[in-house]
Amino acid sequence: MSKSWGTELWDQLSALEKFTEKGIDFLDNFNRFVRERQKIEMDYAAQLKRLVKSYSPKRKDEEEYKIYSSLRTFKGVLQEVGSIANQHELVAENMVQSVFNEVVKLRQELKKERMDHLHEAKQEDAHMEKSRRKLDSCKSQYRSAHEAWLQAKILFEKADSDDNRTKAEVERAKSTMEQKDQFREKQKNEYILQLKNTNEDQQEHYSSKLPTIFNKLQAMEERRITCLGKYYETYADCHKKVLPVITQCLDDIQVKHGQAVTPAEDSQALITKFETGNQPPKDLPMMDLDEPGGRGQTQAPEKDNVSIGSQNGANSLPGRGKAPKNKKGVFGTIFSSKKGSRRWERGRLSGLWASEEAKDFSHLPPNQQKQKLQGKIDEIQGKIDQEVKQKEALLKMRDVYTANNSLGDPNSLNKQLETIGKKIDLLRLELNTYQEFKDKADGKGGTPSQKSSPTRSSGPPANVPNSPSKERPPSSPLSPLEHEDSFIDDDDFDEDEGTAADPKPVGTCTAMYEFNSDDPNLLNMVEGEVLDVIEKDSGDGWTRVRRSDNSEGYVPTSYVNHL
């Protein structure tokens, strides 16, 4: 049978008071430990995140991290380290919520409970002390009465034995003795009664009341110790919970990323990135000084014998031929004559100027140019697919609103549909431009200005909204012809140029909305204008039209109404 504080420590209230106080103070000490441990986890997580950020690829290096397996997998390693940092943050958060806050709550409860128990014990001590003082008072009064009775008795016996005393004096002495004796008996009875009460109080105090209080203190202390044990388990569990995730991250670093490094792939990626497609230079010609008339002369190299380094020179445009020569100066070439102006305009339409070189990547070697153009095409196609999905979602929503007007106004979606339709139109034009660049780079002929049927993109053509905006649509950012100061030298064109017969109209249409664009391939129009249809929409969302002044261009099909 286990011993209890109430029976074994009945006289150690002061010791129990100090012990329970130290136990509650230990909760504060443990909580400080948890707080510092939580801070270590947070600091470690922050350091890991700073490490990941400092070693993450910069914007200029993102392309290399995509094509080389060693860099791509290292980026994956950084992501796993970032995930590990997140797990350490989770450890710190769980320590605060599951341990620190619970310890604070328990400490407050135990502190109040301890104060209540000690206050009750002190009240019982005060009651016991009061009973003892009352017993001492009764005992003192009884002693005084007993001594007074003894003195009166001695005086009576002395007077009774003295023959010289009168009978009256003897009777008075006797009467005094009897009175003292009665008072003594009364005080004795009161003392006996108080002694009984005090003994009963003492018996109840040490056998019932104090043991009950001490047992409550014992239960409180044992609950504190039990909770501490659970907090130790929770503290460990906070870390154990994230160990599988951390282990998985480490396994991914080892297997998913470490074993995914392929040297052969990186070697091929380097070849793909820097391969120009040019042929190595041919043998250098021999200079034969013995031949008559050969002194100081060399055999002229063949035209195709172009050095690899010259492909990226400032005076060489791969795929473009020789650089244009400015014989008359910039303004002389542009404004010297109508012939010069026409050639300058054709120069704009052919796109042979510096800004277009940056747009069609013609400044790059052939293979790299094709890769860049294909990447741009894939990027634009992805944007088109995203816009088409968004448009289809809005159309479904509009159908729902039309079927049930209580859910919303169908016309409220027209503005969004109009905006998305314009985005899709512009993206398709941009896709067509880059596809033509790509076709040209692949050797399929044609220039970006020669408008062929645009590449078909996924998704339906843009529908005309019911409530069109009267604001001017944004100018097309897709055309490479954005400057008025470019020109083409006269040597790049034949002097005798013929003009093909204008194609016959296949119908007429009316502009339902105003359309403006700086792109020379497009035709500006105003609302209500009647135009001749030269080429119908082939599915790309654009219609080729002609104005009465013989100016031609493409307009969005969704902006016109065919008559």
Topology summary:
Elements: H1 5-8, H2 13-55, H3 62-67, H4 69-161, H5 167-240, H6 243-257, H7 263-274, E1 316-317, E2 321-322, H8 330-335, H9 338-350, H10 354-360, H11 366-403, H12 414-441, E3 507-511, E4 530-535, E5 542-546, E6 552-556, E7 560-562
Antiparallel strand pairs: 1-2, 3-4, 3-7, 4-5, 5-6
Structural account:
The protein has helices at 5-8, 13-55, 62-67, 69-161, 167-240, 243-257, 263-274, 330-335, 338-350, 354-360, 366-403, 414-441; strands spanning 316-317, 321-322, 507-511, 530-535, 542-546, 552-556, 560-562. The strands form two sheets. Strands 6-5-4-3-7 form a five-stranded antiparallel β-sheet, with no helix packed on it. The chain is built from twelve helices and seven strands. A hairpin with a 3-residue loop joins strand 1 and strand 2. The radius of gyration is 53 Å and the shape is elongated.
- The outline comes out as elongated
Put simply, the count of helices is: 12
Q: Which structural class matches the secondary elements?
A: mainly alpha
User: Share of helix among residues?
Assistant: 55-70%
Overall pLDDT level: 79
Could you state the order of secondary-structure elements as H and E?
HHHHHHHEEHHHHHEEEEE
Widest beta sheet: strand line-up: 6-5-4-3-7
Number of strands: 7
Largest sheet: 5 strands, antiparallel
Radius of gyration: 53 Å
Distance between the termini: 107 Å
Low-confidence runs (pLDDT<50, min 5 residues)?
296-357, 445-500
Percentage of residues in strands: under 5%
